[in-house]
Amino acid sequence: MKSNKVSRRSFLTTVSAGTVVAATASAIKPMESISNNIYVKESGKLAALGGEPLVKGKVWPAWPYVDEKIVERVTHVIRSGKWNRIDNPSAGTVATFEREYAKLMGVKGCVTTGSGTQALHTVVEAMGFGPGDEIITSPYTDMGTISAIISARALPVMVDLDKESFQLDPAWVAKKVNKNTKAIIPVHMMGQPADLESIMSIAKKHNLKVIEDACQAHLAVYQGKKLGTIGDAGCFSFQTSKTICCGEGGGIISNNEQLLDNCYTVMNHGTSKKGSHATIGPKYRMNEFEAAVLLEQLTRAEEQFETRNRNAAYLSSKLKGFKGLVPQKLYKGTTKGSFYLYTMAYHKEHWNNAHRNVFLKAVAAEGISLSPYIRNGLHREPWTDNILARKEYQTMYTPERRQQFKADLNLPNCDWVCDNMVMLWASGPLLATQKDMDDVINAIMKVYENRDKLHLIS
Fold first, then answer.
1. 247-257 confidence digits (pLDDT tens)
2. Superfamily for domain range 8-63+300-374+418-456
3. What is the pTM of this model?
């Protein structure tokens, strides 16, 4: 069938003239907002119902990115025989990466670890938090955020989300501060900044530490500063899916040199740089192979970052004003995001009340794979009962506090986000071309044109 692309402006003009294209007349209502520059194809029957897929054989850029230079760096480390950071403490790949990453981020130093979870736990321990202390954070995150807190036997206090940004809501943060609160861990979900202006204001008022969980947020910029540099410390993950990656790995950055020294000691099983066995600490060292991969990743990280931002901005411009899928809200001052994921809120009332899974199945049949993200907020997982049954939590937290912790696990906005999130996995796909982004939009719009047929998809 011949394609007939219709912009919103020309579409509304056609509506006023009473000559709407037949293929869209029953599907798109003139009062529904579809932005300028969205192009809707007269694309026929849904592929999920036997029609022709809009996109065939879509191949996204592979992730993680691999080339021969990465292989050469790792090979060099293998041949050196120095595989551990303590074998080459100042000139090895780990030490070199720490210096280069600190330089890239514009901070005084970096301490690497074996994962983002380890980075977060290291900072919690280095700041001296433990039993009896409370740390406020988000329920909409990887379990590593919570693990960092409960590994220190502190109490994670989860607060509800802002439904549009998918980030923890500062209004709820302020309500949950009490005399035992020691820190806030904002999580920059999908690589976009949380509302740090509000969070830093709350922290200053109550003399709290701020540990930025920037595990998904490499190079993102908020109010002129890179994420991870605004709080007392910033933690990053270099796990395979991340936009700078090495399989597993983590990093801590800060401008507080004493904190960085403390983090090194905790990370190094409690042993300081001077060799003094000073405190309690796990062994969280990054190895030389991981750092070799990261060093080569840094050579193109900024270029890839700009490409992801450009493609994300293009997608958002095409979806502007479209009520069916609303891109993640970015807070004022967010000039660039990491776009680890490109996420949208699915509003089923604009899709004839079709369940999100039906929509995802329909779009997938058109050749574009979108997906949910986090199935359940962490307030709905069994670790909450596990810690309350443990002797140390029963000893350090009163029955009343434990009861309140349980009662506070009602977080409806987080539940809504889990149930209505739609994402394009971005580490690879957002490195694609503008034509690929058009394919995403056109697949979505083809399904939208046929939303009255979604109930037929089983």
1. 999 999 999 99
2. Aspartate Aminotransferase, domain 1 (3.90.1150.10)
3. 0.90
